[in-house]
C-alpha cells in the first residue's frame, strides 16, 4: 500500500485522469495515485465535490486539475481532453471509473433506465477512451484502466441490466487490449466486489424495487483504490476483488450449472421477500 510521505513514488511525473472522481472509488483512486506521485486530472459532474476532492489531492504535494465534465456529452469529453493536454502535455493513465447501477427484474426495468445505464457505463467509456488515445500515445508505457465489477463476469437476478453493461465493459477491454498492444498501451480491468460507497444510493431502480443491505463484508473505496494502483504499477491485466467475488468468478467458470442453481434460488428468495 503506497501512502503519502513514503519514498517510493512509482508514478512521480506521470499524469492520471480519473472519471467519476468526485466521490467513492474515483475519489479514493485520485488520492491513491497522488500518494504514489502522480499529477491528477479529476473529472465529474458535481463541481463542489469535485473541487473538494481536488484540494485533498493537491494537499499530497502533486498537481490537481478538476474539470467539470458529463462524460455522456461529447463536447464535455472533448473539452476534458483539451484541458488535460493544455495543462500537462500528455496523459499516462486513463481510469474509466464513472458508472451507475440498476436494480430490479429485467421485465420491470424501463427502457430509458437501461439506456441511461448503458450510456454511462459503456458508451461513455468508449467516448472518453477514444478522445484520450492521442494523448496516451504521446507517453511511453501508457495505460487504460477500466473499472468493471465482479457482476460483469456473471449475471445475477435483479441486476441483469447492470451486469450486462459491465459484461460489455469486459468485452470492450479485451478487444482494446489486443488493438493497442502493438503500440505499447496496456489495457487493464479492475473488477470490484461489494464496495462501501455512495454507488448503491445513486443507482436506478425498477418501480417498487429496493435492495436491503448486502449481507457480505464490503471493501472500502480506499481498499479498491489501493488494489487499482498496485495493478497499475505491476501492469496486471485482470484484477477481481473480494474473496466472494473471486469465488463467484471461478465457480461460474468451472461449475456454471452449480452457480445457475444458486442464482435461481436467489431469484426465488427475492420474489418471496418482495411479494
| 3D shape | globular
- The percentage of residues in β strands lies in 15-25%
Provide the succession of SSEs: EHEHEHEEHEHEEHEEHEHH
Q: Number of DSSP strands?
A: 11
- Percent in helix: 40-55%
Largest sheet: 7 strands, parallel
- Unreliable stretches, pLDDT < 50, 5 or more residues? 1-6
What can be said about this structure in brief?
By secondary structure, the chain is of the alpha/beta class.
Structural features, described:
With 275 residues, the chain is of the alpha/beta class. The protein has 9 helices and 11 strands. A 7-stranded parallel β-sheet has the order 3-2-1-4-6-7-11, with helices on both faces. Helix 1 (24-35) packs across helix 7. The protein is globular and about 50 Å long. The protein starts with 14 loop residues before the first strand and ends with a helix. 44% of the residues are buried.
List keywords for this structure.
15% strand; alpha/beta; 275 residues; globular; disordered N terminus; 11 strands; two-stranded parallel sheet; 9 helices
Strand and helix map with partners:
Elements: E1 15-19, H1 24-35, E2 39-44, H2 47-58, E3 64-68, H3 74-88, E4 93-96, E5 102-103, H4 111-136, E6 143-147, H5 160-180, E7 186-191, E8 195-196, H6 199-202, E9 204-205, E10 219-220, H7 221-234, E11 238-240, H8 243-254, H9 256-274
Parallel strand pairs: 1-2, 1-4, 2-3, 4-6, 5-9, 6-7, 7-11, 8-10
Amino acid at each position: 500500500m503506497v501512502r503519502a510521505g513514503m519514498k517510493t513514488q512509482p508514478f512521480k511525473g506521470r499524469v492520471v485522469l480519473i472519471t467519476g472522481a468526485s466521490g467513492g472509488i474515483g475519489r479514493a483512486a485520485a488520492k491513491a495515485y497522488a500518494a504514489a506521485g502522480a499529477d491528477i486530472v479529476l473529472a465529474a459532474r458535481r463541481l463542489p465535490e469535485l473541487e473538494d476532492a481536488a484540494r485533498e489531492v493537491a494537499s499530497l504535494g502533486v498537481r490537481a486539475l478538476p474539470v467539470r465534465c458529463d462524460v455522456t456529452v461529447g463536447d464535455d469529453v472533448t473539452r476534458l481532453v483539451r484541458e488535460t493536454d493544455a495543462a500537462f502535455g500528455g496523459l499516462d493513465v486513463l481510469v474509466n471509473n464513472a458508472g451507475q447501477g440498476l436494480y430490479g427484474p429485467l421485465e420491470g426495468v424501463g427502457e430509458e433506465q437501461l439506456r441511461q445505464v448503458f450510456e454511462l457505463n459503456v458508451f461513455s467509456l468508449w467516448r472518453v477512451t477514444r478522445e484520450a488515445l492521442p494523448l496516451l500515445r504521446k507517453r511511453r508505457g501508457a495505460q487504460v484502466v477500466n473499472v468493471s465489477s465482479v457482476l460483469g463476469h456473471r449475471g445475477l437476478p435483479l441486476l441483469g441490466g447492470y451486469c450486462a453493461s459491465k459484461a460489455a465493459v469486459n468485452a470492450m477491454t479485451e478487444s482494446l487490449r489486443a488493438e493497442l498492444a502493438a503500440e505499447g498501451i496496456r489495457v487493464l480491468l479492475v473488477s470490484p466486489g461489494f464496495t462501501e460507497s455512495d454507488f448503491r444510493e445513486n443507482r436506478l431502480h425498477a418501480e417498487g424495487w429496493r435492495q436491503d443491505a448486502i449481507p457480505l463484508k464490503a471493501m472500502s473505496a480506499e481498499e479498491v483504490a489501493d488494489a487499482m494502483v498496485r495493478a497499475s504499477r505491476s501492469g496486471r491485466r485482470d484484477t477481481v476483488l473480494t474473496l466472494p467475488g473471486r469465488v463467484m468468478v471461478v465457480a461460474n467458470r468451472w461449475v456454471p450449472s452449480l452457480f445457475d442453481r444458486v442464482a435461481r434460488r436467489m431469484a426465488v428468495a427475492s420474489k418471496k421477500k418482495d411479494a
